[in-house]
Amino acid sequence: MKNVEGKIVLITGAAMGMGKLYAERAVAEGALAVVLWDINRAALAETADQLRQADGTTEVHTYLVDVSDRHAIEANAALVLEQVGTPDILINNAGVVRGNKYFWETDNAADTEFTIRINTLAPMFITRAFLPAMIESGREGRLVNVASSAGFVGNPRMAAYAASKWGAIGFSDSVRLELDQAGLKQLKVTTVCPYYVKTGMFEGAKSGLLVPLLEPDHVVDEVWKAMRKGTPFVVLPKTVLVNEAIKGLLPTGLRDLFVGKVIGIHKSMDEFKGRD
């Protein structure tokens, strides 16, 4: 896929942060339509206005959607299919993070269930709502699921978040294999696994040795290129893969020592504040 010219692009969590950057890329490349899903009404309207002013040809459609609600997902997906058409590119970008507490100190509903609903279940329900139509269209398509490097590495003070992203990675890569097995090679899945990104969502989180905090523009650049190529994984920075390499080589205690003490990951959420 050279670009998204003439295509329909749907992005969740599109009102700000990286979601907004993905939308700007789509408009810049001449997408036929950009569909923005978000729960923040004011930010959604502001972003839509900016996109319309930047380019007069791309249609910009907004939907106020709480992706933690399966029924809201299904209802709004039906509206998109009816009002706009079948997305060619679906970017499951919406996410939340809760941190700075040990698991036994967290609130089951506000922290654990909320995190799992948005980070794990929402991409599954959204994909299920659109993928059959994407398959039926027969067109070249892309599915991008934004997970996290936390889906590879367990970390203190973010148990629910890590669990949600482990689940997202397993789901995303399984769908990739299913599409390939079914012979639907025109549809490619990219799973995105970055370290902490400077969007405000990870305010207060710390960098570590070999794992710096990431700039949103850089992450979006890499994801966009990978999406067009149909690359299965985007892992940023590449040093995150060091942990994967040593999992089968070092005993757990030594690996914990290396990741926690040498790289400093286990202290990265000690001063986390996040976004309200």
TrEMBL record:
Full protein name: Oxidoreductase
Record key words, sorted: Oxidoreductase
Domain of life where this protein originates: Bacteria
PANTHER family for the chain: PKSB (PTHR24322), RETINOL DEHYDROGENASE 10 (PTHR24322:SF736)
Family: Belongs to the short-chain dehydrogenases/reductases (SDR) family.
Organism this protein belongs to: Nocardioides phosphati
Alphabetical list of SUPFAM superfamilies matching this protein: NAD(P)-binding Rossmann-fold domains
